[in-house]
Amino acid sequence: MRGTRRGVGSGATGDTLPGMRTRTALSLAALALAGLGAGTACSSSGTADAAATTAPTLEAASAATVVAPGVPAAELAKEQGRTVIDVRTPEEYAEGHVVDAENLNLQDPSFAANIAALDPDTTYVVYCRSGNRSATAAAQMRAIGLDVVDGGALTDMADAGWPTS
Question: What is the pTM for the complete model shown?
């Protein structure tokens, strides 16, 4: 039925959150690159078995810092012991965050200076409330040469096993 399908990729305007199409396009590009890098097919069933069969793809992708945002990236980041950056506002951070996460507010005018001061030899994972700001922050961090993956939303990080407070 024409015009009744809603959501990402439907072609309808105004039916997605701001930035969702860009994030989806980036996610698809990351998945394509991850598949090319590992030379294996990926399952999208979302089961634990699917995660186990895609683990080599995620590991291969991590070498190039290309991992699908969200739970897959958060799980890989946890395995790798990455340093956690919360890019939400201090008020959001105070309401609950990943334990030991550093709060670098993306909306703060000093965000660029704050990420420039980070150790370039450390690996990072970033998250926010919904995944939009983390995608922006990860792109900015990669642009200055930092090794960072997009953990998506706080709920993605928690679902991947990161302790929260």
Answer: 0.62
Q: How many Cβ atoms are within 10 Å of 80's Cβ, its own excluded?
A: 13
- Domain boundaries 20-159, CATH class: alpha beta
- Give me the residue spans of the domains in the chain: 20-159
Q: Measured between alpha carbons, how far apart are the two ends of the chain, in Å? A: 46
CA atoms within 13 A of residue 140's CA, in its CB half-sphere: 20
| Distance in angstroms (rounded) separating the CA atoms of residues 25 and 6 | 17
Measure the CA–CA gap between 42 and 47, rounded to whole angstroms: 12
Neighbours of 152 (CB within 10 A): 30
Tell me if residue 48 falls in helix, strand or coil.
helix
Rounded to whole angstroms, the Cα distance separating 96 from 163 reads 11
Q: How many CB atoms lie within 10 A of CB 12?
A: 12
Q: What tens digit of pLDDT does each residue of 7-20 get?
A: 333 333 334 444 44
